[in-house]
Amino acid sequence: AGAETLKRAVELDLASRFQESLVCYQEGIDLLLQVVKATKDEAKKHVYRKKISEYMTRAEDIKKHIEKEKQDGKYHKQIRIEENATGFCYEKLFQEYLTEIVSEVWVEDPYIRQAHQASRCLLYNFLRFCEMLVKGPCKVKTIHLLTSYDEGSARSQQVSGLEEIKESLRSYGITLNIEFSSSIHDREIRFNNGWMIKIGRGLDYFKKPRGRFSIGYCDFDLRPCHETTVDIFHTKHTKKM
Predict the structure, then answer these.
(1) Is position 164 within any domain?
(2) In which band, very low, low, confident or very high, does the pLDDT at 237 lie, cut at 50, 70 and 90?
(3) Residues 35 and 83 in one domain
(4) Quick one: pLDDT at residue 238?
(5) Which residues, 6 or more positions from 34, have their beta carbon under 8 angstroms from its beta carbon?
(6) 195 DSSP β-pair partners
(7) Which helix (H) or strand (E) holds 234?
(8) Are residues 56 and 26 in the same domain?
(9) pLDDT, tens digit, 9 for 90 and up, residues 89-138
(10) Which residue from 79, 149, 180, 199 lies 20 to 30 Å from 54 (Cα-Cα)?
(11) Banded model confidence at residue 20, pLDDT cuts 50, 70, 90
(12) Are 9 and 60 found together in one domain?
């Protein structure tokens, strides 16, 4: 298993898929270390240790390369969510980038609305995103939301719902600034530590649950997803709206 994982790491490395390669190197090294512990043959141990040293050196080089890309604003990672895939709740996507220094968040999504079915209300998606921010480990103080108005009579419900979220966030010491635009099309989320996440479907990539008492209704990690692509970038300076 260790050999196969490290073989995959080298293939990804040669394809310049460094982030994925690094994960495989780390997993492969851990597996080889377990082999070394279980091996009594000193000659084999010597060979394994030499290989481990080589892979560790390469993994460290990749780490430095990735860090430089982040500093230069060139970092890019892409995640493809397949149709009906599960395991992609907001925590899984965003937690890695919500470091303790994050204090300000920008959300651009034209469809933070009341929606048509209560079970698929897009306002609830935004609320769940805000709940994730409240839980930390980041210390968010300000959330900026740029969205578009809902149509017709649903507009008043949309505004009322957002105001309720705003009031609730205030009790946690978080300010929600809401702006509306009729021309917004982009969907992206930015943190003031330089991370930017673009999701093809915005926050609305979860499918409608089969029923109110079906698995995945409450836990979004178990909710099937629509097919979409997530692009993650790191920039030196996060632009402001």
Answers:
(1) yes
(2) very low
(3) no
(4) 43
(5) 2
(6) 234
(7) strand 228-234
(8) yes
(9) 999 999 888 988 999 999 999 988 765 444 347 899 999 999 999 998 88
(10) 79
(11) confident
(12) yes
Domain carrying residue 160: 76-234
* CA-closest candidate to residue 157, choices 122, 128, 131: 122
The mean predicted confidence, pLDDT, of the chain is 87
pLDDT digits (tens, 9 = 90+) for 199-226: 999 999 999 888 889 999 899 999 999 9
Which of 108, 97, 109 is closest to 191 using CA atoms? 97
Is residue 83 located within the same domain as residue 68?
no
Cβ atoms of 102 and 134 closer than 8 Å: no
In sign, the C-alpha dihedral spanning 131, 132, 137, 139 is: negative
Last residue of a domain, one of 46, 72, 98: 72
Q: Give 3 or 171, the one with higher predicted confidence.
A: 171
Residue 241 falls inside a structural domain:
no
Alpha-carbon distance of 66 to 68, in angstroms, equals: 5
Domain harbouring 166, CATH code: 3.30.870.30
Q: Provide the number of structural domains found in the chain.
A: 2
Same domain, 66 and 83: no
Residue 144 near residue 104 (C-beta atoms within 8 A): yes
Interval 21-37: pLDDT, tens? 888 899 999 988 888 88
Strands 142-147 and 75-81: what pairing? unpaired
CA separation, residue 159 to residues 114, 132, 150, 177 (Å):
9, 22, 9, 12
- Whether 102 and 65 share a structural domain: no
The tokens 């604003």 sit on which residue?
Answer: 73
Exposure of 63 in the CB half-sphere (CA atoms within 13 A): 10
* Region for 42 from its dihedrals, namely left if φ exceeds 0, alpha if ψ lies in -120 to 50, beta otherwise: alpha
Q: Are residues 146 and 208 in the same domain?
A: yes
Position 22, amino acid: L
